[in-house]
Amino acid sequence: MALKNYGVLKGRAIARRLGSGSSPHYQLHIVDEIGTSYRIAVNVKSQLAPSELMYHIKSHFVHPLTDAVSVLPSGFNPLAPSPTSGALDLIRGNLVQPGMMTPLAFNLPGPDNDLNEKLDQIVQRAMADEDALVYAFGERWGPESNRADKYFGFVPGNGIHDIHMNQGNVGNFVQDDGVWQDGGLLFHFPIQQQWTAIFLKFQSQSWHTDDVTGHTLRTGEEGGEPVNPDPIVPQPTESLPDGLVRIVAALVNSKESPEKEWVQIMNPSDRLISLAGWHLADKQKAKMPLSGALEPGATLRVDVQPPTVLSNKGGIITLLNQNGLKVHGVSYTKQQANQPGWTIVF
Q1: Per-residue pLDDT averaged across 294-299, rounded?
Q2: Any idea where the domains of the chain sit in the sequence?
Q3: Model pLDDT for residues 162-215, shown as the tens digit of each residue
Q4: CATH code assigned to 241-345
Q5: Cα dihedral sign for 75, 4, 169, 241?
Q6: What pTM was estimated for this model as a whole?
Q7: Strands, E, within the chain: which ranges?
């Protein structure tokens, strides 16, 4: 069962409270342009061990997602679970690579060294800039009739939670699994023409999930049979396919007619890697097969063939291994694709 009321809230940050207590959440008070108040409850500690959340902050976030959500009206916007609605999927949207995320406790002594402080630094900047906008992705609750918010006191209580990855869960949280329904925070600073992204994940969640249910896949199993592990034992990093081969460049807007697009992949490892059964996929999950092998340190230019298409309006490129598991993924914007003949380097 996926989240029931998934979407994105667009508004201004006006107050915040650091996470504390036995079930700490960083609390953020948001108002939309007509004055409706919302509380954003951001997990900063997991109920399951290990308790430290994985986080990634991208100070200068460049992704086609920003074009999709910037045109949405102020307030809460329901989002369909699809790659074109503006919904988040940390895995399928190529928003963050596993190695970019770091576990961090929410309350450590000293300045700027815990999750509360990492979040607060960006939120404080947004609160000080009257033009800055916050985009909070997650599940909505409320409005709670005639009940004041317990942190900020506005009436009625109203807000967004599940501001974290919402797939690959374990135990009772498996019921929240789904695709294209991940939580996260985007901050837009128009004067600086800058977007900043915050993505969070529990250490118990899997990076490899079923494309329909969002349930954990058995790593390395042919066909990727979905399972609901309870509990899950995290696998060593070296046993996962993430980043074993990388997408390093692409031509998505050629000068030729019809266009001849290509993707450059690289094997940074010390071993020969067979590409038999591997695929390259676009934003719509249209796949083209790969073949041959990559020597250690070698690169390979792959000419893009139908049904895979690299749109000039921004897109996603994903590399899948013989078991259908994501090895690497990148994204590019419409602005990056608007120069015919130029190669985009990732």
Answers
A1: 96
A2: 6-201, 241-345
A3: 999 999 999 999 999 999 999 999 999 999 999 999 999 999 999 999 999 999
A4: 2.60.40.1260
A5: negative
A6: 0.89
A7: 6-17, 25-31, 37-43, 53-58, 75-78, 102-104, 133-144, 157-161, 184-189, 194-201, 246-251, 262-266, 273-274, 279-281, 287-289, 293-294, 299-303, 314-320, 326-333, 344-345
